[in-house]
Write a structure and sequence with these properties.
By secondary structure, the chain is mainly beta. The protein has a domain at 20-47 and 214-330. Helix content is 4%, strand content 50%. The protein has one helix spanning 2-16; strands spanning 23-28, 31-36, 47-55, 71-75, 81-85, 90-94, 100-104, 120-123, 129-133, 136-140, 146-151, 156-162, 166-171, 178-185, 190-193, 198-199, 217-220, 223-227, 233-238, 243-249, 258-261, 266-269, 274-281, 285-296, 299-310, 315-320, 325-330, 336-340, 346-354. The strands form seven sheets. The protein has a six-stranded mixed sheet with strand order 1-2-20-19-18-17, with no helix packed on it. β9 and β10 form a beta hairpin. The chain is globular, with a radius of gyration of 20 Å.
Length: 355
Amino acid sequence: MKRIMVGFLIICFGLTASGKWKGRVYTENGVTVVENEGEGIWSEGAIEFRETLSIGKEEGEDYYILNGQYLDAVAAPDGSIYIFDGKNYRLLKFDKHGKFLWQVGRRGEGPGEFRNIYCDIYVLPDGGVLVVDEVFLNFFSPDGKYRRTLKLDRMPLYVEFIGKEKMFVQVFVTGQPGIAGAFYSLDGKLISRLPVEYRYGPKLSPNVGASIGGGSLRIYGKKVFMSLPDKYEIREYTLDGKLLRVIRRKFRINPPNIKVIFGGRGVRVYPSDSSGPAWLYMNRYIVNMVRKVSKKGKKYDIKRYLDFFNLKGQYLGSYRLPEDTEFCYIDAEGNFYFVQSDPVPRVYRAKLIVH
């Protein structure tokens, strides 16, 4: 069945990407810029996601009843799925068929405990899992055993392991919202900083920070993708900071809704438009997350999209996520993972279909 489905997808992709691209390619300060204009190559409604697994129920065993306030999910190389259930301060693991395997964690500051409901999780090189809890990195084995906790000098917004000796981290910055990265050893020692960073939004006091859109850096092979949160621009760098290419799309991203208070000694961050991060899908597409925010009375209306580009940087099309749904991960097999908070909190896996 898998071989038939893969063949079907390849045929569909070939048939769909046949429209005329609207844009231009030019050089700016010695760097290639791909400027996308108008509609994408794919026809409207060409992108579909076919659900293949759902974890989360309204009733039943405790480990299937998730809290929708904050969920994060990743998949290990063997297809097993880790879920961080923030409001319940627990880490759960399921096999690739959705069968419950184990859960660990509770609220606290001891070994294997979690301080914060907004923790992010990442797969370790050996198939274990890392839980990032503010500046603390908690390591667990594939069978759920607590290994150790590592404290970094700055809060990570994104973590990627490079081989078995170091990791790349997007770090939280202060003084002004921004994007910055650094390389650390696996015992938490700073090796070097990414030579480039990006700043946006209002100036703040040196010890005050703010961020919109979460992690905006991703590493794929020997490239770093930086998706700017406050305007539609994806930058590709080498690991040593050389700018290789810029991808732009004529799509309005409103300025970040960040308010400075107490004379710059404090800050309030409200729901804002944002672009990024950008993912590389099966070495076939660049997938960029986009969020558009509008205010209706006292409530915010948030629309989330996945924008697709081919490897040339040409805009293909966009997919609007269902209400109360966020995208969180793409695994090595090309499966997409989404978190849905309403009507029943759940994590679901889906295959990309392009008509």
